[in-house]
Amino acid sequence: MLLDRLFSHDRPRNRWLAVVLVAIVVALALTPFIFPGTKALNVAAKVIVFIVLAASFDLLLGYTGIVSFAHTMFFGIGAYGIAIASTRIGPTWAAMALGALAALLLSAVLSLLIGLFSLRVKAIFFAMITLAVASAFATLASQLSDFTGGEDGLTFKVPEALRPGTEYAAEPFLGASIDGRFVTYYLIFVVALLLVLALLRIVNSPFGRVLQAIRENDFRAEAIGYRTVVYRTIASVASALFATLAGVLLALWLRYNGPDTTLSFEIMLDVLLIVVIGGMGTMYGAVVGSVLLVLAQNYLQDVMKIAASAVQDVPLLAQVVSPDRWLLWLGILFVLSVYYFPSGVVGRLRAMRRN
Amino acid sequence: MTDAPTATASSVAAATGAEALPKSRFDTLPLLLTAIVALAAWPAVGSTSTWLTLTFAGLAMGMIVFIAASGLTLVFGLMDVLNFGHSVFIALGAYVTTSVFAATLGWTSVASLAPTLAAVFVAMLAAMLLGGVVGLGFERVIVRPVYGQHLKQILVTIGGAIIGEELIKVVWGPAQIPLPLPEALRGSVLVGDAAVEKFRLVAVVVGLVVLIALLYTLNRTKIGLLIRAGVQDREMVESLGYRIRRLFVGVFAAGSALAGLGGSLWGMNQQIVVPQIGGQVNVLLFIVIIIGGLGSTLGCLVGALVIGLMTNYVGFLAPKLTMFSSIGLMVAVLVWRPQGLYPVTNR
User: Fold this and answer.
1) B272: domain range?
2) Which of chain A's residues have a Cβ under 8 Å away from the Cβ of B82?
3) B29 occurs within a structural domain
4) Which residue of B has its CA nearest to A268?
5) Which of B15, B263, B288, B305 has the least CB density, counted as fewest CB within 10 Å?
6) Which chain A residue shows the shortest CA-CA distance from B144?
7) Closest to A334 (Cβ–Cβ): which among B162, B282, B323?
């Protein structure tokens, strides 16, 4: 069946999950028409980019069982690739392609080096070394201000066809104005869809099965004859490349990149939250988790504002539910999901069917 | 690499025949590394007085980092738990210090030394106490359910770090808090040509006290013996009837208290406290304990000193490369000794 081929025989396997996923994809596909306003479109674009980023991280964390803290580094490399190419060469398609290619190359080399250097030893080692490398890279990016714009970042132009000023139709179509932003949004949507399907293909291939074997018992996988170092390294390179592409998409959408947008440790935590709450080792978890997190980031604060004004006379409680503390609640949810729902929302939904 | 000294030691013992237990030879090479780093920087820096100042600053920073990192490496060595939430205790220590200094403004704003030192002492004590108490809770709620599961440990302790940082923001607010040094600790004293900042003198003294206390506890007391034995072989200690869990809880609390102390000193060193302060130091701590060899206390000290010196020299010569010099050093050390400077044998 075509659908089966498309999903690499890895279907949602639960009616509710399928409904949620279809709803998410349809909502994202139709956002310019059904949710008017720039904020909704920005939120939707962020959701899409984070889906790719989190799905590529899931390849590492959920499927191979290694924790990397350098994932946002590759995300940042992709975004800086576009940003620097655009400011140095000019806002042409060729420059975009060159920037993306250079970024992919740099990511591949860096992830290969880190992988070969530290994946031989314990998982914990890899986690610590990637953390160190990522923070050094973030420092470097903010210090090379001639090149990266430093702390201020780079604001740049995208090719003519993607600019907000470019009008394709004089009249709005079904409430959406058909301009460069509209085209950019669908460009990102289609590319992201292809990337997620490609990741689904990878994790359901024989290669992906070996990764899962390594996750479950690396000693046994090695004993069967798979060279675990090689597999782990390939997985980390592949995941880095997908993260780089996510960065490229983000840069195209924002037309800006700076250390806080892509390189900061907060983004890394967001990705961790997405993958763990959504469900490790499921790919679909990245989709559900990204929607939850980005919605929480953008709208939970509004809800908490209401809650905070309701209890504003209670001193400590008002502090705890103040809208700035939304991360506290996600952190608690994160710890609880690691304890009680190790396979996240998706795993929980799938388990419902069996009962 | 680890076998070589043991082999020579046992052959020596076999030759003499008298010694029942061969003494393991002390490995001095890593200590020499510290001296080599310091001496290599001398010609690069140029002036001797600047070099002396930098060296002392490096040693002081190394001492602070050692205090903060010692708990991390012990906890890992004993229970195989890598605590990514260690940063919370550092931040906590720094924030407690701001509160104590604010409360004892009368002591810290005068130029005389005695009340200032009293305030600093109270601040450090409070930081340690709170660090230890919160550490107990952290161990119970966050770490205990996931013993032996590395992946979950990393995730859960990260979650603990997120929650802790947010709670700190709830109590002290999200804005940065200035932490000016007490009046009497500002400025520096001249030792020969080198300017030695007074605060760094305090840091070195505190660091030495902690080091001596730690070495005494680990090497001369029964608890220390059990801890060292537990790091070597946990199951064996358990099968001898000792409750290693209880021991571990104590070590965790002590490690958190030391992190609080380290955070207090680090906050005074930075003179400004932000909620992310712990995360910033944590990267440094990881580099230090990787260099030292995961689980090794002595390695942690040497690693901290080397990193402290390196950071100060490179910070003077080429400030942009500071972070990279630490990572470069880590890579170099791991190429030389893949398990760190002082490998813990069973890992």
Assistant:
1) 64-289
2) 124, 127-128
3) no
4) B158
5) B15
6) A339
7) B162
Q: Phi, psi at residue A225, to the nearest 5°?
A: 120, 10
CB contact under 8 A, B154 and A330: no
Asked whether A242 and A55 are in contact (CB, 8 A), the reply is yes
Q: What Rg, from alpha-carbon coordinates, does chain B have?
A: 21
Residue B112 within a domain: yes
CB of A340 within 8 Å of a chain B CB? The answer is no
A265 touches chain B (CB under 8 A): yes
Question: Residue A338: which of B150, B156, B286 has the nearest Cβ?
Answer: B156
Tokens of A165: 């000023």
Q: How do the pLDDT tens digits run along chain A, 355 residues long?
A: 777 887 877 778 888 889 999 999 999 999 888 887 888 899 999 999 999 999 999 999 999 988 899 999 999 999 999 999 999 998 899 999 999 999 999 999 999 999 887 776 666 788 888 988 898 898 888 888 888 888 888 899 888 888 887 888 777 777 777 888 889 999 999 999 999 999 999 999 999 999 999 999 989 999 999 999 999 999 999 999 999 999 999 999 999 998 888 888 889 989 998 999 899 988 999 999 999 998 888 887 778 778 777 777 776 677 777 777 888 888 888 898 888 888 888 888 888 765 5
A351 lies in some domain: no
Residue B190 — φ and ψ, nearest 5°? -95, 120
Chain A residues lying within 8 Å of B162, measured CB to CB: 269, 327-328, 330-331, 334
- The answer to whether residue A250 is domain-embedded is yes
Count other C-beta atoms under 10 Å from residue B224's C-beta: 15
- Write out the residue range of the structural domain in which residue A132 sits: 14-264
Mind listing the pLDDT tens digit for each residue in A267-287?
Answer: 998 999 899 989 998 899 999
Q: Let me know if residue A7 belongs to a domain.
A: no
Q: Is the ipTM of this complex over 0.95?
A: no
Question: Structurally, how many domains does chain A consist of?
Answer: 1
User: Is A67 in contact with B160 (Cβ distance < 8 A)?
Assistant: no
Q: Is residue A313 part of a domain?
A: no
The predicted structure's pLDDT at residue B22: 62
Cβ contact B88:B160 at 8 Å: yes
**Residues 6 or more apart in contact with residue B129 via CB below 8 angstroms:** B257, B260
Q: Please check whether residue A22 touches B, CB under 8 A.
A: no
- Residue B114: name the closest of B183, B21, B59, B194 by CA: B183
Place of tokens 């520096």: B188
What pLDDT, in 10s, does the model give residues B156-166? 999 999 999 99
Domains held by chain B: number: 1
Residue ranges of alpha helices (H) inside B173-243 are 198-220, 222-232, 234-239
Give per-residue pLDDT as tens, B74-120.
888 877 888 889 999 999 999 999 999 888 887 777 777 788 888 88
Chain B nearest-CA distance from A202, in A, is 22
d(CA A43, CA A45): 5
Neighboring chain B residues of A131 at a CB cutoff of 8 Å: 282-283, 286
Residues of A whose CB is below 8 A from B327: 132-133, 136
Which residues of chain B are within 8 Å of residue A316 when distances are taken between CB atoms? 170
**Contacts of residue A132 in chain B, CB cutoff 8 Å?**
283, 286-287, 326-327, 330
Q: How far apart are CA B248 and CA B253, in angstroms?
A: 8
